[in-house]
């Protein structure tokens, strides 16, 4: 009976030693602290971040297939209504491909995804974030601009016109095939 008791104690000691080895790290008080890389919270992980600060998925409307007032072309984007000056955020990691002014879109940003397969188009902007430049790498959630109504947008209804285009290898920033951004932004998480 005594042998079984010592065997049980020995197994318990081995178990505790293994637990300490794999689960506990003893660090001297004067050692520099290095934190493991942080991972986004589960709610932040998704295909795309809603590109306007503070806008919840429930505030989005799928306007992708709507025909514009002129009746000549489909919308091929969604409009995200927000107060003038509200921060416009990079929807994903990537690189600023083009800062551009057009009569329709006004002040715009074209951002290419990190893998080069998509262009994210942000239009009707009030202004760019300080220092934003073509070729600059941006991270998901980084402020790149502010909501406005430049171009042909109604001055009384500031919003972000947001479009996504699938790109063929080597295709120019103004090309691509429109993809509905709504399901990429508003999916249940």
Automatic annotation (TrEMBL):
Keywords: Hydrolase, Metal-binding, Metalloprotease, Protease, Zinc. Pfam families: Peptidase_M23. SUPFAM superfamilies: Duplicated hybrid motif. GO terms for biological process: proteolysis. Its cofactor is Zn(2+). GO terms for molecular function: metal ion binding; metalloendopeptidase activity. InterPro entries: Cell_wall_metabolism_enzyme, Dup_hybrid_motif, M23ase_b-sheet_dom. Residues 74-181 form the M23ase beta-sheet core domain. PANTHER family: CELL DIVISION PROTEIN YTFB, PEPTIDASE-RELATED. This is Putative metalloendopeptidase. It comes from Sphingobium indicum (strain DSM 16413 / CCM 7287 / MTCC 6362 / UT26 / NBRC 101211 / UT26S) (Sphingobium japonicum).
């Amino acid at each position: 009976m005594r042998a079984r008791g010592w065997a049980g104690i020995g197994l318990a000691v081995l178990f505790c030693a293994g637990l300490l080895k794999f689960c506990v790290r003893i660090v001297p008080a004067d050692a520099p602290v290095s934190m493991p890389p942080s991972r986004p919270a589960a709610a932040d992980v998704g295909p795309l971040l809603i590109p306007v600060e503070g806008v919840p998925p429930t505030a989005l409307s799928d306007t992708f297939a709507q025909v514009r007032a002129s009746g000549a072309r489909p919308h091929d984007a969604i409009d995200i209504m927000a107060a003038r000056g509200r921060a416009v955020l990079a929807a994903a990691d990537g690189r600023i491909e083009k800062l551009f002014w057009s009569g329709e879109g006004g002040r715009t940003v074209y951002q290419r995804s990190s893998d080069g397969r998509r262009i994210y188009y942000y239009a009707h902007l009030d202004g760019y974030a300080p220092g934003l430049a073509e070729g600059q790498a941006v991270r998901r959630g980084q402020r790149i601009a502010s909501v406005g109504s430049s171009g042909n947008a109604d001055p009384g209804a500031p919003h972000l016109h947001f479009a996504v285009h699938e790109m063929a290898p080597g295709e120019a920033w103004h090309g691509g095939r429109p993809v509905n951004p709504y399901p990429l932004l508003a999916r249940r998480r």
